[in-house]
Structure formats: structure tokens, C-alpha cells
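Hello Y.,

Per our agreement to keep a running log of every chain we model this quarter, I'm adding this entry. I've kept the format consistent with earlier entries: sequence first, then predicted structure.
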Amino acid sequence: MNQMIHRDPDDFPVGEEILRMSGITKVYGNGVLANDNVNFSVKKGEIHAIMGENGAGKSTLMKILFGSEQPDRGEICFKGRVLTIESPKKAVELGIGMVYQHFNLAESLTVAENIVVGQEPDRGIFFRQKNAYDAVEALAKKYAFDIDPKSRVRDISVGKKQKVEILKILYRNSELIILDEPTAVLTPQETEELFRQLLLLKQNGYTIIFISHKINEVKTICDRMTIIRAGKTRGTYDVSELSANDISVLMVGRDVVQKIDKPSAKPGKTALSVRDLCYRNEHGAVMLDHVSFDLRAGEILGVAGVEGSGQRELAEAVSGMLKAQGGTVALEGSDVTGGTPGEIRALGLSHIHEDRMSYGIAKNVSITENLIANRCDSGELGSKAFFDRKKTSSLAEELVKEYQIVCKSPSVPIGMLSGGNIQKAVVAREMSVEPRVLLANQPTRGIDVGAVEFIHERLIRDSREKDCAVLLISSDLNEVLEMSDSLIVMYKGHISGYFSDVSALTEQELGLYMLGLKQQDGQALKEALHEEV
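Predicted structure for the entry above:
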């Protein structure tokens, strides 16, 4: 019998230093200095934030702690012992667990199977499901995680998937838990629930490292914070002693505008018209259920919803990446239903995809090649067979400067850039062609406040000055409320709410629509949407 027994954190004293990383230096083969003599320490039983701009070195430091990267210099002391953590497996054995922003779960397996995999109770020839269910149910109950061990992961919400990841770490007896952007895809209600559970874990002696760009959340949940900027530690502070503006300045080295100041929209003619769009995924789940709306020139129409409510399918159906199973899409009066992405782009649509690494860039080719990828058929840079190198280089340098992309040269592979600079490059490519319609799906996900501020300014400027129609899909409720002129909410593939004026809408109320706890009357909703046509 190989019974996995969950234990509480050991008797290492609460309040004592449980982790110290001293003089951590990491230089990548391309000459990028990611960590420059970084010093970082955490006390047992605290929630400690790490904050800094993208490219500051936060992710590298945590990869070193979790064993997926090795430092060139420096040492790690955990629970009073100097250690070499050569792999994530070693980190888990030591009691260090990490929940990544993008979950690593097997969708077809149950909650319990995902949690116990590799550490099954009564492991042997036969896997005893009941023992696994009982063990997971007991663990979930202990820490107030409301989740059914028998549910298939593909059938549960994003918030519950995150609970599965945390329970998986607790099941493996981790004492130090690293959370990377844990609220990026959660509603306010789910975030509040997560925070209650994190505080309960803290009360039970667990130590949590909380990586986030959301300053208000850090102020709410964290005890202390460490700022990393340009690869160097800039100080550790008691969160209670800093204002939100203080934290912004420490992160980026200058004042950052928190409140978005945008002029009123003056919508023009309908630029994008969607009617009765329908789509079922490979599991038969309804992802688009007769979705209809209009987007006008010079307007930013926000789309909010819990992740998996159909937002991605909507963007991909409109852009031609996915073939809808019913309904129509028209771009400035032209029916583009069933058109290819290239054909739809040629008519004036640009698409910032939510997954920048898989769909937004080709990471192994140069920044220049990525920046011109949507101009290859236009003829402005030469023929398809022979590009004018001088024009190409000049355009790339111009965009790098205009969009403030920090790089050694436009000729280096784009994959060498930080997440924020990669996102700026995607935005530069998609917006510099002056589209008539821009699909901006999670345009600022996982990037720092400085890059967010810049991208917001570009979206507002282009929609106002160039009459670009922007469909803004975002899981950041502050962003979607601040940026949008009007707003639709999606729930299980259909529009559950429409707001022509978002000024009085709160995050809490929006969260109720996202969770399906509130819905507008179907006929009234249809009439309201059609009034805008």
C-alpha cells in the first residue's frame, strides 16, 4: 500500500525566515541579464507579493526557486538549509509548489484523478477511485474548497480549476506555495472566495508567494511585497505602509496614471455586424448561442465573461479562424461569413489574439519579421518574392520606436523579449495598418502597469482619432469597465446583459451577470441591442 498522507506544515516557526535567495544572478545565452544579484526572503506564514514590470526578472527568479532554471551565481536557503534545486520534482519533494497562470490539468479526467496523479492512494496494479475521492474530499473540506472530486475538469469553471491546482499542491505536502497571477481570469466573487481560502491557508501555517500586477489585490491580501525592477531588487516593504500610487512608482520608476481619461465616443456607421452566431465545440458544449450585436466606428465595445463563456470562439469566428455553425458576420457591409483570416484581414480587420505566444507571434524569427507579417501581401514592402530590405528595416525601426518596444535590435528573435514587449510588438503590428475593426482579445493580460497604460492610450487614440471600431474582450474587469463605451456580458455562450452606458456599472454587479446570477430579459435585451443598429 502506497498511501499518500497529507500533513500540515511542520513546526518551523511562524514569523521566522523560511526562504532566503541571496545574490541570485542569471544571464541567458543571448546576453540578457535577467537577475542581477537579487536578494529575496520570505517569512513562514505570510503572503508575500513580488511585483515589477514584465521583463523585470520576477518569472526568472521563481523559475529558479522552483527548479526549472538554474542560477549562474547565488544560493537558496530553505528552512535553514542551503540547497540546490535542480528540478521541479526536487522542489516538490522539498515542499515548494507552484500554480502557473495557465493551468496544467487533464480536461478529460476527474478532479480527484488530476489531484492524485503520480501520488495515488493504494498505488499498484489497480487504481482505487473511491480512496482517491475520499482523500480529495477530506482535503477540500479541511480548507473550505467547494468542489466535487468526481466532476470532470472540462465541466467545471475556471475558478474551480484553480482550486484543483491549489489542492494538487496541498496534496503533495507543499508548505511554500507560489501563485502566478492567480486572479487573472476570475470574477470579483471568485477572487473574494480565493482570498478567503488563501487567508485560511495562511492561518494554518502555509507561506504564499503572490505574483500579481493588480495593485489593489496586493493591498488587500498581502503582508509584505518585494519590488524587482530591471533585474534588481529595489526593496521589500510592508504593504500597509504604501499607497497604490507608491507601489506604481516603485514598480516602473515613474508616476503611472491609474484612472483612464478618455474623451467621449462619437460613434459612426456600423463597422461590424454579427447576427445569430452559433457554435458547438468538439464535446458538444454550446459556446456561441445565437450571438448578435453591432459595433460602430469610433466605439469601444467591451465583452466581459468568465473564461470559457464563448469570448474566444466569438473572436475566432469573426476573424475567420473558426467556422461558425450558424449565423453571419459582416464587415462594413461586406458578408465575410466563412471567409479565411487573410480575406477578412484584407477588408480591414486586425486581431490581437489572447494567446500571444501560440498565435500572436512566431517566436523564433526576428522582431522585424513579426512586425511585417500582416503586410506581406500588400505590396508596400515589395513583391511577395522580394522584399525591399531598406523599407522593411525602416518600418521595423519606426514601429519599435513608436510603440516603445525595448530590444537590442529589431533583428533579434522576438522570443527573447519580455511578455510586455512581445505584447507591444503584437499591438504595433495589428494597429499600425490602421484597421477599420480591431479585435483586441486580452490585450494587456499578464503585463505590467507601464505597458498596460501605453496600450490603453493607443486603443483610445486610434478609436477616437482614426474611427477604428474596437471589440475589447478582457477578463480584467477594471479594464473592460474603464475602457468600454458600451458593454456586453457573455454567459454560457449567450449574451446575458448589455449596457449602453457603463459609467454606473460596478465590478460586483458585472460579476453577477458573468456568473449567471443575473440576466436581462431576452426580449428586452434583443430590443436594446437592435436599438444600437
